[in-house]
Please model this.
Amino acid sequence: MASRYDRAITVFSPDGHLFQVEYAQEAVKKGSTAVGIRGTDIVVLGVEKKSVAKLQDERTVRKICALDDHVCMAFAGLTADARAVVNRARVECQSHKLTVEDPVTVEYITRFIAALKQKYTQSNGRRPFGISALIVGFDDDGIPRLYQTDPSGTYHAWKANAIGRSAKTVREFLEKNYTEDAIANDNEAVKLAIRALLEVVQSGGKNIQLAIIRRNQPLKMFSAKEIELQVTEIEKEKEEAEKKKSKKIA
Amino acid sequence: MALQDVCKWQAPDTQGLSPHLPQAGGWAVPRGCDPQTFLQIHGPRLAHGTTTLAFRFRHGVIAAADTRSSCGNYVACPASRKVIPVHQHLLGTTSGTSADCATWYRVLQRELRLRALREGQLPSVASAAKLLSAMMSHYRGLDLCVATALCGWDRSGPALFYVYSDGTRLQGDIFSVGSGSPYAYGVLDRGYRYDMTTQEAYALARCAVAHATHRDAYSGGSVDLFHVRESGWEYVSRNDAWVLYSELQKLPEPEKEEEEEASEAHPEPATPTELAKVENSPRGLEPGDSRMPAETETL
Model:
């Protein structure tokens, strides 16, 4: 039944599905994990780095992209599609500044990206974008924001979310561990993001890429060393927690 | 994508400027004729003469204007409204061609309203000025004449921008526009301080326009006074220009505490309360009155 309704994007199936959009969401589930966390004074984006071939230059693999000085996004899914979306979003950020003098709000650029994705689900001859995006940043009013878009063109605001391969596991981890204490200060928020990724990423800190935006400051990518520092801290805390537990039992 | 290309169909751009504005250059002119030269030779002689001013200070933005609409040597209307509300927190003083100003303000109102619905908040005064100047710059060279000061209160406090139809857009504290502006600038530059009280500001604005109407032939009638506060704009008063000017002349010389030169003392900073009592409008309006019924729609 599905095969008759999944060729053209603009055709609904009898039970109300747009199969091409759902297949796009499957493509997203194959992409590497990305996690976003909204703290009180900081927003954090972390992504799982796929292992690169021996001869490949690692630095050219970018999954976290700045859209403007105060907004950035991470994606999960088809890299080429993401590149097209990021380019359009960057142009829109500058157009907005040119027309209206103000930098875009995070919600505005999210709405733009979502509208772009929706347009591609309702045109003939095109296929949807195979990416979900996590868009983070600070608005002029100083409030941190995190939004998630998906291939159908819907968007929602989140306190913390994950997309990609093991999104479900990471989201469950976040639901358990996203507390007021966990985001009490910037460092804690960063550690929460790393801990969430460590749940699903093999071989630890080497395969994690991390970026933060602090209020009124531009995007900062963490170097491998800084990530290693955080990972060792986390492992130390884990050991101490284990010791305490075993002491209690003993 | 492929089918669209074959059919040569363009999807409407809903995110850009609202459609239905005529394309620049899409004017009905005889074939083979350049619109600019055509207008220069055959276009209507549009006349502009006015005095409008606006300045921003601690308690908001003051906008004042005369009310004479002149057409060459003929006073087309002695009681016109030259300060146009755009929305609750934005006014524009208009100078140049009345028809152009009125039309472009309606277009600006529409743009701001659409953006407010999309974004959930009204754009800032800077944005409004940018939008207006960008829209008008498409029509450059086609004899549009709109010289306006946008006065408003937004998230950054009192804001004032000057926009001209060739695309000029300037931010400033004091602007005066029109044929009577040199006279008004003289008075304004003498008496302006950012920390004025509201009554001092009202007096300064009235004085500046009154002096301009005295000397400029194309300005006269009455003096309209508007005030944009944090809570929105307010129509303060309309006073007859000649009555205002003669009352100003009657005021005694004030005593100067700081300045050495006693000549040519400007009356209003020292005696704001006297001035307020002395003015009386032919319609019995008290200055500093509460809001006049708004005749144009508020957004």
